[in-house]
Specification:
Helix content is 38%, strand content 24%. With 383 residues, it is of the alpha+beta class. Strand 11 and strand 12 form a beta hairpin.
């Protein structure tokens, strides 16, 4: 059996786009070279922002690239959506350093997808375990307290199932599933009467305020539309006293690099844009990610971010709508509880045990939450 060699790089530019995308494919927009490259070249992801790239490459004896994974040395836990602030606080209270930590994830993107990329000609489990082993060594080299792998797809999780050093954490999101609906009204017919009427009332309320919607596919997004969207996006953060994670230049480069997987939905009233949302997509899934508005209108958020997205899925025969993190409000609008996972290697023995105990208790809570959520789905079969 040929030996595998791990190499860490401090920029995605240290590997060619062709080589990376041969491993990742281009169906999932977030793991593509172009997406990760845009984050780095616009400074959204950099050592100065607490995201120091530490991507791993795995090569075989012939120096062929057979594996890779995005990775960052983090000095905080912002932009991750799997919350470990309490863990960091516990370390601090015991005079221990939680940061830096190693993180394999897509920055600012709580979306399930491939995380450990393996060549079609290589053995997935062997390469995945080589990545995991190399991460353990990198923890010691960098002084990291831990390694965290967020929102892995099933293939990634299965490839690491034999690695007993990793703790499994359970989570939940809400996704809409297209059951072959011919129209939005066809979807509504699957709901109980009260919920169906409520959604119709919300959509009508938006129309009665004089608001119309414009869908602009990536190749057709002009500077004025992008500027309008970015103003909305910034306001979402500024209203909470925060700076936005992503820059205007990032969105420019994203649309220029992969226009076929990006589009805008802008809300217009009295010949001016008042809200907008940017979506990404692949062959089967719609990803709703970034939104904002200049004024508050009744039910405008639900319409712009959810109902317009459902319309798009039905019209384009997409099977799933992943509308991001959080969301009991999505439940009543037909989004189903969907399991998510993360994997964690904790170096400190006592904290590893404490966190393992916490995750056991949390898992029971998540299971109960999902059972309760399923009982409140608005579909007729839930009556």
């Amino acid at each position: 059996m040929t030996a595998l060699r791990a190499e860490f790089i401090d920029s995605i530019e240290a590997v060619s786009p062709v080589q990376w995308n041969q491993l990742s494919g281009v169906d999932n927009p977030f793991i593509r070279y172009e997406f990760l490259h845009a984050l780095e070249t616009t400074g959204c992801v950099a050592e100065a922002t607490g995201w120091r790239p530490q991507h791993i490459l795995i090569r075989d004896a012939q120096d062929a690239l057979v594996g890779a994974a995005p990775c960052y040395l983090k000095t905080h836990s912002y932009g991750e959506y799997v919350f470990d602030w309490a863990w960091a606080d516990a370390y601090h209270r015991h005079d221990l350093e939680y940061y830096p930590k190693l993180l394999t994830a897509i920055p600012f993107t709580p979306s399930v997808g491939p995380r450990l990329l393996v060549s079609a000609n290589a053995e997935r489990e062997r390469v995945s375990l080589a990545i995991s082993h190399a991460m353990g060594e990198r923890m010691h080299q960098t002084g990291a307290s831990s390694w965290h792998l967020l929102f892995p797809d099933e293939a990634t999780r299965k490839s690491l199932s034999e690695d007993k050093s990793l703790l499994l954490r359970h989570g939940t999101q809400f996704h809409w599933l297209n059951e072959g609906y011919a129209s939005f009204d066809d979807f509504l017919q699957a709901l109980v009467s009260r919920k169906r009427k409520n959604i119709r009332k919300e959509r009508q309320a938006v129309l009665s305020q004089g608001i119309a919607f414009k869908v602009i596919e990536g190749p057709d997004v002009g500077e004025s539309e992008l500027e309008a969207f970015y103003d909305f996006y910034q306001l979402t953060y500024l209203k909470r006293g925060q700076r936005p994670y992503l820059s205007y230049t990032f969105f420019q480069r994203l649309i220029a690099a992969m226009p076929e997987q990006v589009f805008l939905i802008l809300a217009q009233r009295e010949q001016r844009y008042v809200a907008g949302s940017l979506f990404l997509k692949n062959q089967s899934t719609l990803f709703g990610r970034y939104w904002g508005c200049t004024e508050e209108f009744n039910h405008l958020h639900f319409e712009t971010c959810y109902y317009q997205g459902i319309d798009y899925c039905i019209a384009h025969k997409l099977l799933r709508f992943d509308a991001g993190a959080q969301g009991e409000h999505k439940l009543l609008r037909g989004f189903r509880p969907t399991p998510t996972y993360s994997l964690h290697r904790i170096e400190h023995p006592a904290f590893r045990q404490a966190i393992a105990n916490f995750l056991d208790e949390e898992r029971e809570g998540v299971s109960e939450y999902v059972r309760d959520a399923n009982a409140h789905l608005p579909f007729k079969q839930a009556e």
